[in-house]
Amino acid sequence: MALTVAIIGRPNVGKSTLFNRLVGQRLALVDDTPGVTRDRREGEASLGDLRFGVIDTAGLDEAEEGSLGARMQAQTERALDEADVALFLVDARSGVTPLDRHFADLLRRGKTPVVLAVNKAEGRSGAAGLYEAFALGLGEPIAISAEHGDGMADLYEALAPFAAPPDAEAALAANGEKPLQLAVIGRPNVGKSTLINRLLGEERLLTGPEPGITRDAIATFWQWRDRTVSLIDTAGLRRRPKVEEKLEKLSVVDTLRAVRFAEVVVLVIDATQLLEKQDLTIARMVEEEGRALVLAVNKWDLVEDKQATLRRLRDRLEISLPQLAGLRFVTLSARTGAGVAKLMPAVMATYDAWNRRIATPKLNRWLSAIQQRHPPPLVAGRRLKLRYMTQANIRPPTFALFASSPGALPESYRRYLVNLMRADFDLPGVPIRVMLRKGENPYARAEER
Predict the structure, then answer these.
(1) For 204, which DSSP code?
(2) Could you read off the pLDDT of 204-247 as tens digits, one per residue?
(3) d(CA 149, CA 153)
(4) What is the CATH number of the domain that holds 56?
(5) Domain span at 314
(6) C-beta neighbour count of 368 within 10 angstroms
(7) For residue range 35-74, what is the model confidence (pLDDT) as tens digits?
């Protein structure tokens, strides 16, 4: 985007609601609880014909040095440095507070141009707050309602002068492939945000010993070699009985949505707590969604007997995740950076397998050879015939298998076919779907005609 706008303001003035309004989706978590947003979130926004990048930030608040609040504010300050325009939001119903005045002073002294917007200004109750905002010395305030969409035309008029001309914006638009959607998930405190920061080479996301720092699924665009990647950090997934608070439930929903829209999912696990039950539950959920999966075994620097740990990991994967046989895993330390360089090659190899298409003649030669070597079982005294196979889809690889009596094919034989396909067609660790159908070889009928 040629223009980037950072939404700035104290907690609970409606920044995330406005962000969702501008991007046209409910991407940011919204709740009455102050401080829901912690990391900065980026999106592609539009107002009429104006296209721009928008950054949702944590609420500006006074905080002790070194605290979580201070780290949240540092993220907001970085977003402000990256933005072309700061959209400073105040609450019309609460009026201008001392905290608003304090941060207005800071914004006036900064280099980033500021547009002042007064949110929740619908109805008579917002009039007083709108007039108070003139005293902030940031120009004429714009009355808006992020929840109802009021004032968006005025906001367009305020932002349009900062945008590049259409020709320049077109020249700046990225050409080529759609960004790879890569979600990083796992239990709380396994190092997801630290790993993403290591990949990006900067402290882009909040990290720390406090559990549950990440709440939103935060997407960050990143260039790996010649490929644009949308890296999505997510909230930690705990076992369902432990998820009680409303905000955590919203975070879990946001994480599950990120998985559904991802192409590749990196499941981060703690090498010192190898593949706990919740890790396996998450991996099975990713497989059921049909996403490509890579395992990042983090905190490898803390493991003493690495060979024994590797053996335990391979055994656990073989026993507990047979539906993802050959799953790629990378041992690494997000804290030190050791092994992190191996992660993206594993991601891209898995992504290629997830997108692999196998020619129909090749599939049917393979199917014929398999039946000669290990025929299907007898059904009512007659040999079950597998007549024809074709690939119906990719992402994940999905195959239609036509049989004389599809309902009689044992699940064990179907798994046998899937495992052979993994080995023979180089499909390790990706979900494989085989749909059984009753019918003849359609190509054989066409030849008869």
Answers:
(1) -
(2) 654 445 444 444 557 788 899 989 998 888 877 766 555 455 44
(3) 9
(4) 3.40.50.300
(5) 180-354
(6) 12
(7) 444 456 788 888 887 889 888 887 665 555 555 445 556 6
Same domain, 15 and 126: yes
- Asked if residues 236 and 188 have their Cβ atoms less than 8 Å apart, the reply is yes
DSSP 3-state assignment of 10?
coil
CB 187 within 8 A of CB 236: yes
Q: What is the DSSP string of 239-287?
A: -GGG--SHHHHHHHHHHHHHHHH-SEEEEEEETTSTT-HHHHHHHHHHH
Angle CA(10)–CA(12)–CA(18) in degrees, nearest 5? 95
H or E element that contains 346: helix 343-354
Cα–Cα dist 256/249, whole Å? 11
Residues in the chain: 449
- On whether the CB atoms of residues 173 and 167 are closer than 8 A, the answer is no
CATH number, domain containing residue 408: 3.30.300.20
Report the predicted TM-score, pTM, of the whole model to 2 decimal places: 0.65
Give the H or E element holding residue 398: strand 398-403
Sign of CA dihedral 407, 409, 412, 414: negative
Secondary structure element (H or E) that encloses residue 411, with its range: helix 411-424
Both 162 and 26 in one domain: the answer is: yes
